[in-house]
Amino acid sequence: MNRHVPIRQRMPSCLLLGAAMLPLPAMAAVTDIGYVDAGIKPPSAPHTLYESIDGHRFVKAGLTLYGFGAVTDDVNFGSSYGIDGAVPTQQDPAWWEAVVQPALTAGWHTRTGTFFTGVQGSYNLTRGSRYGDAAGATPGHPEQARLDRAYVGWRSGDLWADTLGKDAVTLSFGDQKFIFGDGFLVGDGYTDTGRYAAYYIGPSEGFADTAIVSLDSHGWHGDLFHLETHQDIGEDEVRKTRANGANVDYTWRDRAKFGAAYLHTYNSDIATREGMDIYNLRAKGQPLASVPGLALGGQWVHETNQEQDIDETGWYLQATYTFHDTPWRPQVLYRRAEFSERYDTLFYDFAGGWGNWFMGEIVGEYMLFNSNLDIDMLKASIKPREDLETGLIGYRFRYHDRDAASADDRDFARELNLYADWMVTERFFVSAIYAVAFPGEGADERFMGNDDTAQLFEVFASYSF
Q1: Residues 313-346: pLDDT tens digits?
Q2: CA 37, 43, 46, 50 torsion-angle sign
Q3: What range does the domain containing 231 cover?
Q4: N or C: which end of the chain has fewer CB within 10 A?
Q5: What is the DSSP letter of 42?
Q6: What is the C-alpha to C-alpha distance for residues 334 and 314, in angstroms, rounded to an integer?
Q7: What does the alpha-carbon distance between residue 435 and residue 264 come to, in Å, rounded to a whole number?
């Protein structure tokens, strides 16, 4: 679950894909066109180790370091356990995480297209609280290395450049990063819990055993895919889910983007995912040429599984206004999101800005995960400099169905997040956030009478060689 690893190739769900594949300052709302392109995403490897004289063969390398630290106060509203008392976490956990992530990529340009390959590994550790993070997901000071990506592929090059366009067709196989729809449904193939550490940084994103066919032509993008996801839950137990599906996007000039997808999950160690069908529709863009600062966007997901009595829906609608001609470029955003009682977030990612799609650095990160939840989000941000953005986000969390949560009150919590994202250099990025959450009656019930105000301060940094 990459919480702050580059997409653009979580975290900011406010960060974009840069030339060095680093998280960049939060410059785009989720309604911006093309800020996360669908398809496979190679690891960061900017340094050339070898290049043939004719330039047709190359080997490149990269190394990225990530660091994160957090201190909390009553992060579980005064409880020493997570939500419903299931997982011990300590009342005021403090912890830090570190990741070393090397990568190699290679390619060979031929008359019949480009053959490419890549590998990426991660060495991760979590220290501090003996229970790990505030969700208790990485206990026991875990420290492990794993191979996250290892893939091969082919791109069509000039084969059909006159009709479909250059590099119109891509085939790829292996363990790799794949995303569509801004990561709302599919974007992260590995959940960083258990023995592999670094829950917040989330360095591993690759789907396992993938087979993906992609087409890019004249504004259209399409994918046919097979994916497998893994989640380490400790004691050498790994939960797996396989999925087949199709995705299609259409980008209309620089004004709008529309998309749809279908997935079928099977051979899953999670009962509700065994045989589930998932349908997705989405749109975003600037609808009025006369009001260029206004952007609208939304997504709808429906999940059905008759064997498990699953008939669930998740959706959001969002409006963003950017004052382009005003100093510091102020931006305001409002989002309404609703997730039914047993909605499954599947393989969602941290992509595109704070709040996408982990809504709230306390509630959304460590308590409630976009299921049986209605969320109102209001965000305001400014950019005093090109390399610096700061903003304030307010959330209201309410149960979608009070009875499903065994609660007497729908009001769970309100939360404020104050953040700053600073691109110190082209290679060095720092982000800091202070969060405070005020429990409602619904949280008081879930945390067994604990209703203290929760606070959190965290710093994330990355450096790419």
Answers
A1: 999 999 999 998 999 999 999 999 999 999 999 9
A2: negative
A3: 25-464
A4: C
A5: P
A6: 17
A7: 37
